[in-house]
Specification:
84 residues, mainly alpha, 68% helix, elongated
């Protein structure tokens, strides 16, 4: 199925006109536009919050923390068999 041509779009618009009437179409389009605007605003807000969280995580450094030094686990070392 390819892209819609002029005739297909005209047919769809004619069906919408018959179903909703000329007075309801502007009201319907306002509702669609408002819904799209609210969706875009919510998407942008979520993106800003995610970016702020990532920036906060990157800049958050605990200067009082001691470095973590890996320690060998004796339980693991005891299970290792050495063959000489």
């Amino acid at each position: 199925m390819g892209p819609l041509g002029f005739n297909e779009i005209l047919l769809i618009l004619l069906i919408v006109l018959l179903l909703f009437g000329a007075k309801k179409i502007p009201e319907l389009m306002r509702g669609v536009g408002k819904g799209m605007r609210e969706f875009t605003d919510a998407k942008n807000q979520a993106q800003r919050e995610m970016e702020a969280g990532m920036n906060e995580r990157e800049t958050k450094v605990d200067t009082n923390a001691e470095p973590v030094i890996p320690v060998s686990n004796p339980a693991i070392n005891s299970e290792v068999k050495h063959y000489n």
